[in-house]
Amino acid sequence: MVLSSKVSTILHVARSPRWPTQRVGRRLPRNAVLAAAVALAVLFDKTRSEAHVPASSPASSASYRLFKEVCIPLAALCIGIPCRQIDSLRTPAQLAIYFGAQTGMLLFAKVVISSAVVSEELGLRGLPGAFLLTALHQVTCFVLFGSAFVISWATPWPYRPKPLTKLSDVYRILLFSAAFAANIGLNNFSFQFLPLSMNLIIRSCLPIATAVVQVLAHPGKIAAKGHARHSQEILCMLAGVACAALATVAQSQAQKGKTQSSDTILIGVLVCVISIFAGALNMVLACELGTSMQLNSTDMTFYMGLPSALMLLVPSFTMSHPSWPGQPSMTDFEVHCKVFELAPGVLGLGLLLGVFASAYNVTQYAMVQSLTATYTTFAGNFNKATAIVISLAVGLEELPEGVWGSVMLLATLGNIGSFTVYSMLQLKQ
Fold this sequence. Notes:
mainly alpha
């Protein structure tokens, strides 16, 4: 009854305003977006409880932990979405929305992939089928956006994605889709091997990967920089990578003698490093598609849905990998079949993550196009630092014990700080 009353209230709020006379997808009305955010939060709460996401104590403590996990990202979204309608506050509002979307996605993805209880008796936790899970997210995205487009055709404000008129446009979309599939698929795969903080430390090195990709794409840019600023940027990069390496050593040393071996940590690090270079290519291509093809973030997210899903199906059905501790290696398809048999609610939680992922992709590409790829990575580093703090505060993970905990904390601060300074130097150009 409580859930029904919440949904009725949400639908009443969503129906109240008329949509503005402009293309759907350029700017959603404020109340509709807030209503959708609240609806997703309600569904998240319901599906999460059905999936038995673990808590350290009874139901009241589980609800309090859920509140701690989502309150900061949700507050940022609730502040940023209305403020985006004010021209003087548009950039700060975009940063707030990006913070809420990215931080919430990181915490939610870690819960789904690593923490949701599949079987208490067998000790199975999480959904270690990252490639197929990401493919399902992209199919969900394609269906959601396609349905919205079709529905809009029956209204006075029809929306049609910008058509791809040239074969070269199709090739660009396919390359963009491949970069996205490698970025998100490998990043989600690394969650099986790495703590969230370790993943975020490595992902904070995205500026150096972005710089490498941008230089390869536009070699003339490096020659246009002054020698002093170029040296400062290199120093920041080296310091950031050194701190990331130190944090990796601290985490692997702390895992000695535990269930998760240091070899597992190193596998996760390698996978995550590959994903950040794919992510850098994805960001640079998003900027290029916006300028050369005049695609907005909605069109890009829609067009890459099916191609990236099809690409991710190949490793989902063919690549066998470690699943749960004490269980044999499985493909992603076998993992999902087992989860469907033991705990269908966890799959529901994974599909709900796809809805959030669709909104996040639009937000990220809108940031890249309206600002720059460098500015977006700068904002992302702040988001990652905050996500680490939240994950530690809510008990999603813990620092290593003893001296390695202090080493990892200092290395994390040094890593994020170094790449933040690097991004600030980039923004001064």
